[in-house]
Structures are given as C-alpha cells and as structure tokens.
Amino acid sequence: MYNFEFIYDDETLTTAVEKQGETFRVTVGESTIELQPISENLFSTIIDGQRKVVAAVRSKDTCYIDIDSVLFELREPSDDIYGAGAGDAAGEKDKVFAPMPGKVVKLLVAVGDEVTEKQPMVIVEAMKMENTVLSKAKGTVKAVNFAAGDQVDTDTPIIELELEE
Amino acid sequence: MKPLFNKILVANRSEIAIRVMNACRTLGIPSVAVYSDADSNSKHRYYADESVHIGASSPRESYLDIEKIINAAKQTGCDAIHPGYGFLAENPILAQRCEEEKLTFIGPSPDAIRLLGNKVASRVKMADAGIPLIPGMKDSSADINLYRETAQKAGYPVLIKAAAGGGGKGMRIVNSEDELGAALEAARREAKNAFDDDTVYLEKYIVNPRHIEFQVLADNHGNTIHVFEREGSIQRRHQKSIEETPSVALDDELRAKMGADAVKVAKTAGYRNAGTVEFLLDETGHYYFLEMNTRIQVEHPITEMVTGVDLVVEQIRIAAGLELSEQLHHLTQRGHAIECRIYAEDGENNFMPSTGKILFYSEPVGPGIRVDSGIVAGMDITIDYDPIMAKLIVHAPTRELAIKKMVDALNAYKILGVRTSKKFMIDCMLHPEFTAGRTYTNFIENHMSNREDESNTYRHLAVAAAAVASMTTNSKSTAQLSETGGATIPSPWEIIGAWQIGDSIHV
Question: Are B502 and A1 a contacting pair at CB < 8 A?
C-alpha cells in the first residue's frame, strides 16, 4: 500500500494505491478507482460504463493529467516554492505576478488606486500575445515595480497590494 | 526522371517546415532545414536531409534574416527556397533576392506579394475589376447627407466606426435612417473621449458574418483554378481556431460564383503559385472581398483531405514551371474535413500562453486522422515563437461524423507538460449552434463565455491517476525522462512523497 497526498483547489486529498497484478486500485475518499496500465503514462478506466484513457506523468512534485481533454496539474503539499509561478503557488493574493516571462506592455493601475477582485491590472506580452493579468483580491495598490517595456519574470511581483480586511 | 529541383531550403520551423520537407520527399528532392539556437534540438532540424544553423533564437537574428537564409541556400547547393507561412513567407524582399541570386522562390512574384500586401491598394484594384467589397464611405465627412446617402446605398443596418478605432469605442450599429443623426453624434462624442479624435466613417454592417476563403492555384502558363472553400469563422482575437470544409453556408451555385471571383482576384493580381482569397459572407448570400494571402495557409490540410490534392507538392511543381495537371481541372469535394489548431495556451484561463517541457506526447491514429506536428516528447515550449504546436485534421463522410471523429481524436491526443485548448475546442464543436452550422465570426464571443468547468467531476480520478503516475515515475521512467532531457531528476525517495509500506498509516 502506497499513500500520496495531492492538493486540489486548496484541499488536500489523500490516496492509497494497491497494485493487484497489473491493475492499480486507488482509494480516494469514499471511492475506489481501478486503473489498468496501457503504457507507462497511459491508463484505462471505466466511468459510467465507458472506457476512458487517462494520461498521467509526474515531474518533480507535480503530476500532469489529461482525462477527456480536461487537464489537471496536481502538486504534493510542500513547503518549497518552485521557480515558475512562485507567487501563484504560494497563494499570495496581495501580489500580482506575470503568468510567464515576458514584457510589460501597459500598466492599468497606479499606486494609490483602489482595485476590486478580477480587475485588470497589467498587460504582459509573451509569445507574441498580449495577456491581461487580473487582481486576485480587493485592495489598494501599494507598489508598482515595473514600467511599460520592462522584461519581467515570474518570481518578482509586478504590482503589490494592500489588501482590504 | 530528373527531380524538379536539386535541393530545396525550407525557410521555416516546426510543423510547417516538416510539412514542406514531406512534400520534397514525395517528389524525391532533398531538403535543407535552417534552425536557430532555440531550435538546435527541434524536430524540424532532424527531419531534413541537411541543416544549417542561422543564428540566435530571436526571429530577427535567424528566421527573419533574409541574407542568412540566402547564404544557407547557396552554401548547401539549393536551387529553391520554400518559405512556409509566417516569418518571410509574405516578404517581397526575399522573393526579390531569390530572383537576383538565381534561386527559385516557391511562391508568387515579388510584385504580386507587394500589391496584395497593400490592403488598401489591392482593394481598390479588385473593386475596379468588379469584385464586391463591403460598401461604405472612402473617407470621413462632416456632412450628414453623405452618411445618409451611403447608408441608403449600402442598405441598413450600417456601422459607424471611429477612424482611430478599437475596442468597440466610437462604434454604433444603426438599424434605420431615423437613428442615424443621433448615432453619428454619439459615435463622434465617444471617439473624441476615447481617442481624442472624432473622425468617424460609415460602412455596411454585416449581420452574422462568416469567414469564407478560397484556395487558388495558378501556374506560369496562364491557368488559374480554385480548389474550393474553407470556412474559418471560429476565431478568437482574429486568430482562427477551428476550420472546416465544405462550408455549410455554400450551395453549388454560390460556391461556383465565389470561386469564379476568387480566380478573378488571382488573375487581376497577376498571381502564380498557391494563394488564398478571403471573403466575408453574410446571411443573405452576399459576399465581400477582404484580402488575398500570398502563402500556403495554416489550414491547407482540410482542402487536401477533401480533394486528395497535395497542395505543397503542387506549389513545388508550379515553381518548377510545370503546368497544372489535367486532373486538377476536374476536382470534387469528397466528404467533410475539420482542422483544430493545437496552441500552447490555457483554454481554461483566458488563453494565457503556456510554456514548459513536453513530458508526455501521444498522437491519435486511425482512418481519416492526420496530425501535422512540430513537437516531440522532451521538447521545451518557450516564448520565442508562435504558440502553434500542431494541427489535428480529420476527414469523414459527413460533417456530423467529422465532428464526432474530431472530438474523439482530440481526447485521444495527449500532450502533458504544457496546457492546450483541446477542451475548449471540443465544447465549441459540441455546442448546438455549431452542430447546426450556425458558425459566425462572433461564435466564441456569443456562445463560449459561460462554459461549465468539468474538472470537479473528474477530481477523484485525477488524484488516483496522479498517485499511480507517482508510483510508475518512481520506478522505471525516471531514467527515460532524464534521457529525453528532463530537468535534474531527484532521487525516488524525494519524489515519492509521503508513503509507507504495509498498513496505510499516514505520516
């Protein structure tokens, strides 16, 4: 019996895996799921009478899953913060990070502005596409650390907020 | 038989470079790849018979550097260059430099590229030739009577647009003459506030437009044909996402009429080789010329699926001076084909570009399924280039069956490590408006904003699969992952996380 923990939507789910012959029997909460390996990263299972092929791979502390084109990235609980999207991983709602390395095209807020949740904060260009980054919480803009034209990575917050209590 | 060219240099990367190399192979012509620093381990580099490094990752220092491309061709003994799409494909200077260096440019003449690249000049020329354009004012005016006359001639509804335009500001749809005066004032006011410029103009408002394009082929002997239409109405940020052929909006009569106009556009421009004439089609069967693209298009495979023509092979044959073969004059459309573009973007998060290493890759197979791909497992998807990774194309006897086949093929297409919009495209195609064929350019805006998040349904299965992947990755696949270029692989004890053998006491 092997046990694993994964984070799904801020919730930690515990699993127990048993291997019976070639079949993996996995207990998640109340349910038991059987997965038959097709190849190293493909597994088949039956949902509502239909056979589905699930793709799954693990890299470092993250598992990447495809079930009927619905994609999951499940992490094991960890104190470490990994490089990319560090801010997001740590759930720091008072900081706005670039989703990927790129260039700041336009800042949509200034220091002192009051912002609401999901308000557009900054436009970042990467891969020839412009992306609008939204605020994760309500608050007041405390600092703007970059200007239009600056290159940004995913580790340094572009904008910092004073959260409203 | 002597091959048509000694050797062809493919001045592009990823899936389209590989597509062109396949056509070269079909014709028995060796191909040469060019690659940048970022592409030194790319699929396209090793797909060609030879390859030449042409510089740094930035396109300006490699794929867009005309002299480097020309030098690479000369250095490897090529006598022709195929530009693919994007990069230098519609750059008249490359075509010009090829002529000067006695290399064959597999595409139209520099003059045709120049004319059709100038959207204003080409529209004037096409209007003179009798090709329909969206009716409207040529310039702005202060005189309301001019707006009234133009609107009457074009027919309501009409659209008032800000010249400085963008984001719908200063834009007004006018349904009848009574509304015109007030709408004009409002649009001017809005334009003034938004752009500090109250210049507006009026054109016909196209209700529920479709994007219909015609593939054309023209040889150097005066023969020009069309190879039917493609519909690419499903667009996001003016980027096509799903394309199909035939279009449900065309009957034989309209197809013949639009096709004849597409041929006329090509002839008017003095066009040779493969090109695409784009139209907007309204609900009443009126169509309007938009532009002609002077390259092979991303979506060309759907035309190949229903006609059996290899368009890139035809491009090479035409460039070698051959006449269009007799059978090209008697083509028919057989069945229905759909293409979905697989971008490295997150369809569940505002199509944010997605980067990372491809950790697992598996293509769907089966009758009528084609994958044009530029990626392999272990490859890094970076921000250096266009996010298109691959194209999935299906062919079936009917539209309904093609949709079904595409949904199944997308589900069987597994790419892990970067996010894609597979699920978004499936939801588009299963939407009742799509299956009913009501595919207008506003489809995504109108029907896809409130999609259901299905991830919760699968959360237990996802966690179960993650647990199993953690076990299997732990045993045998670590070695394989590191071979395919995975980052430093931690010891199995580090990656397996909290676990215990025997009783399931959790630590």
Answer: yes
Whether A83 is covered by a domain: the verdict is no
Identify which of A6, A53, A58 has the shortest CB distance to residue B495.
Answer: A58
Residue A165, C-beta contacts closer than 8 angstroms, at least 6 positions apart: none
Structure tokens at B30: 């060796």
Task: Mark whether B167 and B212 lie in a shared domain.
Answer: no
Q: What Cα–Cα distance (Å) separates residue B189 from each residue in B123, B148, B265, B295?
A: 30, 19, 39, 41
> Residues B420-466: pLDDT tens digits?
999 999 999 999 999 999 999 999 999 999 898 888 899 999 999 99
Domain that holds residue A138: 88-163
Domain termination residue (choose one: B204, B222, B250):
B204
Query: A105 contacts in B (CB within 8 Å)?
Result: none
B136 Cβ neighbours under 8 A, 6+ residues apart: B150, B154, B158, B201, B202, B203, B204
Q: Nearest by CB to B459, which of A3, A8, A69?
A: A8
A37 and chain B in contact, CB less than 8 A: yes
Residues 95-154 of A with CB under 8 A from B: 99-102, 126-129, 131-132
User: CA B4, CA B1: separation in Å to the nearest integer?
Assistant: 9
What's this model's pTM, rounded to 2 decimal places?
Answer: 0.82
Interface pTM (ipTM) of the complex?
Answer: 0.85
Residue that finishes a domain, picked among B279, B306, B334: B334
- Is B497 in CB contact (< 8 Å) with chain A? yes
Q: Is the dihedral of CA B426, B432, B434, B436 positive or negative?
A: positive
- Closest by CA to B177, choosing from B207, B205, B155, B201, is B155
**Rounded to a whole number, what is the distance in Å from the CA of A42 to chain B's nearest CA?**
9
Would the pLDDT of A128 be above 70?
no
Q: Cα(B507)–Cα(B496) distance, rounded to whole angstroms?
A: 13
Which amino acid is located at B251 in the chain?
D
Other C-beta atoms closer than 10 Å to the C-beta of B96 total 17
Same domain, A44 and A109: no
Q: Are B352 and A100 inside 8 Å of each other by CB?
A: yes
Q: Which two tokens stand for residue B6?
A: 């000694």
Task: Note whether B376 and B312 are same-domain residues.
Answer: no
**Same domain, residue pair A103 and A156:** yes
Q: What is the CATH number of the domain that holds B174?
A: 3.30.1490.20
How close, in Å, is residue A62 to chain B by CA atoms?
9
Q: Are B458 and A35 a contacting pair at CB < 8 A? A: no
* 8 Å CB contact of A70 and B464: no
Structural domain that includes position B377 = 338-424
Contact state of B466 with A42 under an 8 Å Cβ cutoff: no
With contacts defined as CB-CB under 8 Å, which chain B residues touch A19?
471
Both B311 and B389 in one domain: the answer is no
Q: Which residues of B are catalytic?
A: 295
Q: B488 falls in which pLDDT band (50, 70, 90)?
A: very low
Number of domains observed in the structure of chain B:
5
pLDDT in tens, B73-124: 999 999 999 999 999 999 999 999 999 999 999 999 999 999 999 988 898 9
With CB atoms and an 8 Å threshold, state whether B414 touches A42: yes
Of A58, A65, A102, Cβ closest to residue B473: A58
